[in-house]
Amino acid sequence: MKTVLITGASGNLGKACVEKFLAEGYKVIATISPGKTLGFNLAGVETFEADLTNEASVENVVAKITSKYKIGAALLLVGGFAMGTVQETNGAALQKMFSLNFETAYFTARPVFNHMMKESAGRIVMVGARPALIASDGKATVAYSLSKSLVFKLAELLNAEGASNNVVSHVIVPSIIDTPVNRNAMPNANFSDWVKPEEIAETIFHLSSDKGSAVRDAVIKLYGRS
Length: 226
Fold this sequence. Notes:
The chain has 226 residues and is of the alpha/beta class. The chain has a single domain, classed as Rossmann fold. 45% of the residues lie in helices and 18% in strands. It has eight helices and seven strands, in the order E-H-E-E-H-E-H-E-H-H-H-E-H-H-E. It has helices at residues 12-23, 55-68, 91-119, 130-133, 135-138, 142-162, 180-185, 197-208; strands at residues 3-7, 27-32, 45-49, 71-76, 122-127, 167-174, 219-222. It has a seven-stranded parallel sheet, sandwiched between helices. The longest helix has 29 residues, at 91-119.
């Protein structure tokens, strides 16, 4: 049985990924914030508590996980969003987004990557953002866009080092995801244009599984029709 580590498993995308990987016969390991729960119960999911914004906490929990399991794939789905133009974005706003979107990814990717390098195999999937690729889309979300831009660079650096050991990192780039929160925030939108969590989960599974073994260094734009 292959093992996948999923951070952010309690979110809409996280739950869709949990369900997909379970259906495909994977052992699912999910990280949860201290004192929190996944919010759903599915057989085959094992949870570990960790503060992903704290490097020592992440290193400790990854060490616990890798002492029991060989992680074949890691889905780094934790993140946050904030509005703000250049005029509105100060250092505190930058640091908050860097912590939620980049540091959580780096703090998890680093020990997982080191584990995969020793095993000479592994797939890491991270979440980018369209505003980090298109400046006109990011001008009202400066801190968010800057923090997500580092995720793309992180994947490039991991791929540069991991290529010799069959450790590959990918970045998926959703546009608006069809979630209850987004529907409530934009009630007049055409929801059918938005990409569904289940559609993203299918793509992530392909990239993480043997079916996607030929894919390297991918940046996958999952924009739906929005």
